[in-house]
Protein: Aldo/keto reductase, diketogulonate reductase
Organism: Clostridium pasteurianum BC1
Amino acid sequence: MVNISNETVTLNNGVKMPVLGLGVFRVEDSPELVNAVKSAIKNGYRSIDGAAIYGNEESMGKGISEGIKEAGISREDLFITSKVWNADLGYESTIAAYETSLKKLGLDYLDLYLIHWPVQGKYKEAWRALEYLYKQGRVRTIGVSNFQVHHLEDILKDAEIKPMINQIEFHPRLTQGKVREFCEKNNIQVEAWSPLMVGKLFDNKILKEIADKYNKSIAQVILRWDLENNIVTIPKSTNESRIIQNSNIFNFQLTREEVERISSLNQDLRVGPDPDNFDF
């Protein structure tokens, strides 16, 4: 087994975060999810990324507690993320949503709590709530998700605490240059959701050529490209062999030219909603 647990990035408050995690988006609250989380932990994953809106925090929590037991590790070895949903954005309501997520997950604290979407007129109050939770020592790191440059500028105008993370849709067809540049300048770590573009790149010739060179899968090449771009990545899978395969990306490196070739596939193409134009 490749030991992936010691590959981390240090966030702007000094907390270390694993560079690879398991995402659980669109997986039902089910034994399948419990097993996926358990097998990820068993195979060296130390970061699990969830959200209130996924409706599966109970199964995620069960997978975490059983995974900890079976792997013989402690809660402190894991990095657990959840996100506050749009309907709960506000000061009191965000704090209440945090408590609800903790309860469902069966945890005493989270390692990272994110504002899921930048709902205009609501996310600043929610950010104050996250700052409160952080100052109280209830959560180790706080951040945002799907924030564009102008959203980040708006938050930073009044923030006492700078976001540690911005989790965005990121893959070879959507490289988000401006957001990444802004985050780098402001020491905000970028994290990729949908890094594999829901499988839409698996027949790409350039990626296939690079994958063949290293005797790797296209998914492994894309995830490696994330790491070469200093981006934390959280591919989703419930299949144990795929979970293992996705983690087997620490024994090769792409050349600078290959990284650029993959980046040149960008078409500003989203598979998820546009953060400047959503209505939920």
In short: The mean pLDDT is 97.
